[in-house]
């Protein structure tokens, strides 16, 4: 997993940006000053460093020089509230990959991270890089084939051109943010920002500042003026993920902003007009939350002008093949590998597994398998144990359906083989020794009982 270090003295900013980048599959560490950053960098190598320019103990130029001395290949993105072309030019000359003016758009940061990593990969290993021709920018979306997925895409096409607020409901990892982005990109607002907020990571105190912004000195820790995400997303789309986690007090403020199309920064007495389209997502049933009083009914109806339900992957298994190969290509690019084949036994293991983490889990499993693969094909040994166990349990379940004596004998023998394979971590030589048979006999038994390892 690629590591990202965020260096900024704004605790709220670090929390929000760190949560966003973590959800994109990176490992994130945070430092609030230069000294802490250098201490962390001394113990761990980071591929990406996002640093503010003005820090309490030193400025960004000094930190940038230290970073490049320690790790010349790190992708460094300098962030600052002060737009100055001379500072930007100097930062690039000192080795920064990019210079970004606050307020920061997380999507923009992610784009620069991907471009910086791709540039480093190309420079470091041009031969390996050439084996993979596709660019991550082309991997954003995939159209699945199940009837359930086709229905979702139909809903996207219907609601996108409208101004209706949308609630997307589904389990974690089913692709709710993907759907929100597609709605935005197919809408009339697509030339303006798409801003995503993870409400699950927001405390009651943080939420007001994150949504509406604050003035310097309005509360402890408010060291600078901050633009809220409503203002950042003006004329575009604001996506609120895990909306059900917001406190009741924040729900009241959110309802006011939606109704009046105005916000007020913390510490200010002036209203700011905003024009945003709201798309929200939740992994819980908001109707139940309304009934038990934890979610305001009037806010629910404001948000729920149109709803999209995203079924879990276990209910649309036809999509597993498409998502697996989609993430295979993406992992090949990101890891500079050339794995081209998912064999039938591996796909069968995928179909037997329930995927509690849904599409996000498929992505992680494929990425891991590609990293571990020694040739151009994914093998069972590169899969997490829970997936292999699920496949074996499916086979064992089929045996129990037969009650005749011969079937019971076969079941006992097959159970013993499966047990030995699990104990030996699927090492066939060790499994044969546990069973007190030779390897050839074990291979014959595996073929007889259709056990693929």
How is this structure best described in words?
It is built from 20 helices and 14 strands. The model is unreliable at about 125-140 and about 395-410 (pLDDT under 50). The chain starts with a strand and ends in a 5-residue tail after the last helix. The strands form 4 sheets. A 5-stranded parallel beta sheet has the order 2-1-3-4-5, with helices on both faces. Strands 7-10-13-6-14 form a 5-stranded parallel beta sheet. Strands 8-9 form a two-stranded antiparallel sheet. The chain folds into 3 domains: about 5-130, Response regulator (Rossmann fold, 3-Layer(aba) Sandwich), CATH 3.40.50; about 145-310, P-loop containing nucleotide triphosphate hydrolases (Rossmann fold, 3-Layer(aba) Sandwich); about 315-450, Helicase, Ruva Protein, domain 3 (Orthogonal Bundle), CATH 1.10.8. The protein is α/β, with parallel strands linked by helices. It has helices at about 10-25, 35-45, 60-70, 85-95, 105-125, 125-130, 145-160, 175-185, 205-210, 230, 250-260, 285-290, 295-305, 320-335, 345-350, 360-370, 385-400, 405-425, 430-435, 440-450; strands at about 5, 25-30, 50, 75-80, 100, 165-170, 195-200, 215, 225, 235-240, 260-265, 270-275, 275-280, 305-310. Helices cover about 50% and strands about 15% of the residues.
Features:
453 residues; alpha/beta; Rossmann fold; Helicase, Ruva Protein, domain 3; 3 domains; five-stranded parallel β-sheet; 20 helices; 14 strands; 49% helix; globular
């Amino acid at each position: 997993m690629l590591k990202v270090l965020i260096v900024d003295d704004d605790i709220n900013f670090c929390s929000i940006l760190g949560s966003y980048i973590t959800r994109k599959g990176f490992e994130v560490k945070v430092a609030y000053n230069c000294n802490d950053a250098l201490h962390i960098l001394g113990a761990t190598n980071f591929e990406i460093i996002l640093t503010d320019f003005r820090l309490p103990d030193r400025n960004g130029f000094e930190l940038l020089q230290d970073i490049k001395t320690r790790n010349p290949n790190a992708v460094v993105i300098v962030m600052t509230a002060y737009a100055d072309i001379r500072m930007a030019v100097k930062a690039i000359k000192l080795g920064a990959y990019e210079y970004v003016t606050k307020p920061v758009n997380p999507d923009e940061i992610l784009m620069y991270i991907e471009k910086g990593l791709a540039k480093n990969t190309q420079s470091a290993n041009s031969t390996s890089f050439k084996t993979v021709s596709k660019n991550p920018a082309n991997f954003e979306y995939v159209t699945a084939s199940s009837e359930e997925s086709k229905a979702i895409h139909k809903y996207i096409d219907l609601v996108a051109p409208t101004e209706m607020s949308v609630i997307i409901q589904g389990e974690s990892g089913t692709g709710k943010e993907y759907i929100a982005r597609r709605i935005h990109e197919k809408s009339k607002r697509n030339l303006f920002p798409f801003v995503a907020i993870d409400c699950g990571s927001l405390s009651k105190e943080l939420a007001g500042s994150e949504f509406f912004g604050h003035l310097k000195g309005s509360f402890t820790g408010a060291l600078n003026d901050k633009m809220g995400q409503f203002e950042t997303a003006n004329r575009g789309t604001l996506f609120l993920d895990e909306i059900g986690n917001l406190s009741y007090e924040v729900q009241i403020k959110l309802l006011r902003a939606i109704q009046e199309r105005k916000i007020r920064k913390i510490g200010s007495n002036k209203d700011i007009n905003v024009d945003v389209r709201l798309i929200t997502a939740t992994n819980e049933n908001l109707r139940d939350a309304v009934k038990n009083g934890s979610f305001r009914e009037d806010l629910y109806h404001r948000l729920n002008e149109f709803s999209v339900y995203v079924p879990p992957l276990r209910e649309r298994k036809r999509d597993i093949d498409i998502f697996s190969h989609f993430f295979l290509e993406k992992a090949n690019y990101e890891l500079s590998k050339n794995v081209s084949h998912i064999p039938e036994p591996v796909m069968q293991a995928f179909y037997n597994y329930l995927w509690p983490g849904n599409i996000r889990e498929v992505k992680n499993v494929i990425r891991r398998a590609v990293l571990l693969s020694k040739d151009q094909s994914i093998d069972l040994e590169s899969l997490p144990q829970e997936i292999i166990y699920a496949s074996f349990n499916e086979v064992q379940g089929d045996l129990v359906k037969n009650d005749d004596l011969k079937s019971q004998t076969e079941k006992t023998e097959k159970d013993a083989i499966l047990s030995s394979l699990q104990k030996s971590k699927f090492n066939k030589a060790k499994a044969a020794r546990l069973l007190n048979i030779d390897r050839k006999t074990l291979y014959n038994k595996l073929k007889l009982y259709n056990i693929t390892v």
